[in-house]
């Protein structure tokens, strides 16, 4: 033994706490340095948003019976019927393995979070289809409105995978709570927040990538890798997974949205998002991108199959064009790559959209032709036997017959001229249904069936926020080299119509242009996509017409808003097309009496004023006199979205009941409190 060994041992005994502390501090510094370096490399937001809590409640699906049986599908089929979409930017096997994000990215070294598909995703406003199932169980399920689609090309993976995307029910299934019961409304406006979903999912993926860069403190990534890879878990496959995750986050960082007007819960700028997906992302042309600036409340969809024009601005006629366009907007795959050189062919418009499934969904929604047994005899009614408007449940406060009677007369005086007679009136079926006539190749043609003719009102007449009505009218896109060459039916206004034209609906040929009108370009892309599916599936002409719903692909950029029937209106809050009014009472009041701030994301139903219950915090905010200017109030407070109606795109003006003739959008006289309550009581019955 060396002579100085005892001295060394003695020194170590005295200094070991200091040595161990130094080593620990050094290790922490290394981890911190590696974490900071990884964070800077990712260049991506890893902190998730603050979300509302999820309430575990008894759930009731409001009975809207009468739907037709579609082939052999189950009652739950529409909720998970694939429309060929890949809305979520990661494969299905990643999604079910993904943990919810930590509130603070630095804490990923400690502990384990529950699955993203457990309770966490329902805090974003999605509906739990099987509420009796333990949300923390290992048998994870997709929320209502999400569906799997096999073999979809995935950004960041350079391969196809099973994707997860929205179905129509994701945006068109509503929910509200009352007395500790959750009511689900088929066809109603969804309560989801797509912006928060994007941020939450991005944070969860990003934190997993961050973990992968911190070995040996990479337990979050290790758990993810073992679930995804299963028996294929090894050093090589794990390295490939790590690389794919990193590439995916890089792709997400490139495609983050520019938000001019925050959408928030229950709202989506659907038209601009569709345009951005189709003409900016699919064509890889960033110059075609338009900021999010015209959010609308998710529209309720009962009865819409039989409208002559759909969308808030009455811009689309054919059901298949509407549904295929929706699928493209929520990331169905479509080949729209423009040729890089003269030797390449233009886009083929081959897509992942299953046109036959879209038809089945439309059949489920529409039911049989409403006038199939109607002869026009006095007193005889047609029948909506597809998705019907929800009836006021018996478990909500009982309706008051005297108020209903008084409200019915007020409806006739104040609402019927625009929104048509109530559907239980023979005049509704007798006076408002007409064939659609259009001119094609010099011949005037008419549809076989009659459709519900809705009133359309200009922005000047109705006075509501103009943002959404102007999207299709004002936006242009560059479609050069895309290969568009298709005939579309367009609405010709009185200034364009010539004496030779025998119909307001005319067919024109749409081709590529550097400044294509957005409405026509989108209609042409969807038409080309549908036609490609017909070719690939050897679809006979008669079958094609059936799939198209017996209507031509007619489009218009009206610059106004349509007035639809008010059946089921009680279950569709918030109100106005942009969701800027919380309840019917405020909608029937003078615009100056409507709240400046509307809180969205709360589910508690207000059965008196009929709409969304507002918190004490928002009520206090609406009384403050020291408010900052518009656009400077925090969009999210306490986990909920605060809609500032002073901001363009969010205005709550118009549709005004007032005696002041100078108010824009005056549509009727001022109503007393008693009249409002009577009219609301009647609207509950529709």
From TrEMBL:
Q: Which residues form the Cytochrome c domain?
A: 402-686
Q: Which UniProt keywords apply?
A: Heme, Iron, Metal-binding
Enumerate the PROSITE patterns for this protein: CYTC
Does the UniProt entry include the keyword Electron transport?
no
Organism equals Pseudoalteromonas obscura
The record's listing under PANTHER family reads:
BLR7738 PROTEIN, CYTOCHROME C PEROXIDASE-RELATED
Q: Which Pfam families match?
A: RoxA-like_Cyt-c
Question: Can you name this protein?
Answer: Cytochrome c
Task: Look up keyword Phosphoprotein and say if it applies.
Answer: no
Q: Which InterPro entries match?
A: Cyt_c-like_dom, Cyt_c-like_dom_sf, CytoC_perox, Cytochrome_c_Peroxidase/MauG
